[in-house]
Write a structure and sequence with these properties.
This protein is an alpha+beta fold and 454 residues long. The protein contains 15 helices and nine strands. 55% of the residues lie in helices and 12% in strands.
Length: 454
């Protein structure tokens, strides 16, 4: 090429080059050195370099997928109204609860100011008919439990104890007068409920070894004993207390009001999990309860078991929410955290952990979705609920462990949320029936043999 041709070619290049961009690049790298390096490349190397540069420049190439733990799009099975409610709860949890949970978890305090805000959601007593309750499918109760636990398991536990165990006991075992007195106010969260079954010396064997007693003195029922790990009990207005009748040896249920003489609730301190939940040790000392406050349709532990069967599905959903919160928090972190000049989400070992977590989560979600469908079809059995509780609580442990692992040292800090999920998963693993007890319930169903100690 002649000198004139080279000048024309150079002038043409200068017209196409953005001089501002060129100057900006020159501030970051040595352009002369870069030109010399490019000149040493052969045709194959130049083509490869241009392919890499142009592919990176394609629009949307680096637009990362959204963080969403519902990989199989189970949300699409919900109606538009159900989906709207799900998102209403999610937005509430993100806007009102997430900003305060780590502080309250760290201080082991319950944010009482959220109760009126919760009431406005109108989600209390979701599956119950009448008394101001929404009368929606059990599936929605599960969806709501998941959404609350996705942000914080403690708040989900508060809600489950009140709406599920306490209101459920009254709904299933109370007289019409008792339902009319308590359920409308509890639905509006004007009155808060708790559920007292577990005892200091008896947990899994409470059906046969209950130590709390009740005796009718001709005028009142007199209750004596202790209950332990009773969520909400430090501030609840009514506590469902289960006690064994000294005379008949049958388990009965009682509506114990916080002002009843002989009732005392002492907060349990120094917990490593569910620190926002106000668990209490309840002591009943000649606590007098009138006959009108005895649950009229609770005449044996079988009636207690009806309540537990109804709520156990919700605990399985709660485990799913905990796992989903941990997974989504971990995925978000890996996309932002960089090591060796790249987001750690781009490394094979991290992606393997994320896929293992998502696999567990997706299996859990499909299981509890079907579980709630069976509950709505009234074909749910104890063993169905127990299997879900066993599997989901085990798999949640695995998910939160992997979430903590991909965060490295930051996984033990509250600011990244995963540490809270790791701790709270341990509580889910134990309450509403341990893994061992629920396994024996399922084992009895599939073998025909009871392995429980008589």
């Amino acid at each position: 090429m002649s000198l004139l041709g080279k000048i024309k070619s150079t002038m043409g290049l200068l017209k196409e080059v953005d001089l501002k961009k060129l100057a900006a690049i020159n501030e970051k790298i040595d352009l002369k050195q870069a030109m010399d390096a490019l000149g040493d490349l052969d045709d194959r190397q130049l083509k490869g370099l241009m392919k890499m540069l142009t592919s990176k420049a394609k629009k949307g190439q680096h637009q990362l997928p959204p963080i969403d733990g519902d990989f199989y799009n189970l949300d699409l099975k919900l109606s538009s109204a159900q989906r709207d409610l799900q998102m209403k709860v999610r937005n509430f949890m993100e806007d009102e609860i997430r900003p305060l949970v780590n502080d309250h978890w760290n201080r082991a305090k319950f944010p009482m100011e959220i109760i009126p805000k919760f009431a406005k959601l109108n989600i209390t007593g979701v599956p119950y008919e009448g008394y101001g309750c929404p009368n929606m499918p059990f599936l929605m109760e599960g969806i709501i439990a998941q959404e609350i636990a996705r942000v914080d398991v403690s708040i989900s536990t508060f809600f489950g104890v009140h709406s599920g165990l306490a209101m459920g006991s009254i709904y299933l075992c109370g007289s019409e007068e008792q339902k009319q007195e308590w359920l409308p106010k509890m639905q509006k969260l004007e009155k808060i409920g708790a559920f007292g079954l577990t005892e200091p010396n008896v947990g899994s064997a409470v059906s046969q070894g209950m130590e709390t007693t009740c005796k009718f003195d001709g005028e009142n029922w007199v209750l004596n004993g202790q209950k332990k790990w009773i969520g909400n009990a430090t501030f609840a207005d009514v506590i469902i207390i289960w006690a064994k009748d000294v005379d008949s040896k049958r388990v009965k249920g009682f509506l114990v009001r916080k002002e009843n003489p002989g009732f005392e609730a002492e907060k349990i301190e120094d917990k490593m999990a569910l620190r926002i939940v106000q668990n209490a040790l309840i002591t009943l000392t000649d606590c007098k309860v009138p006959e009108s406050d005895r649950l009229q349709n609770a005449n044996s532990f079988k009636d207690t078991a009806k309540v537990l069967k109804m709520t156990r599905a919700g605990v399985a959903w709660q485990a799913v929410g905990c796992a989903r919160g941990a997974y989504e928090s971990a995925l978000k972190y890996t996309k932002k955290r960089e090591q060796f000049g790249r987001p750690i989400a781009s490394y094979q070992l991290i992606q393997n952990h994320l896929v293992e977590m998502l696999s567990n989560l997706t299996a859990m979600q499909t299981m509890v979705f079907r579980l709630s469908e069976m509950q709505d079809q009234d074909i749910l059995t104890d063993e169905h609920a127990s299997l879900a509780k066993v599997y989901c609580s085990m798999r949640t442990r695995d998910v939160v462990s992997r979430a903590r692992e991909v965060l490295g040292g930051n996984g033990i800090l509250l600011e990244h949320d995963v540490a809270r999920f790791v701790a709270d998963a341990e509580a889910i693993y134990s309450y509403e029936g341990t893994k061992e007890i629920n396994s024996l319930i399922v084992g009895r169903a599939i073998t025909g043999y009871s392995a429980f100690v008589n």
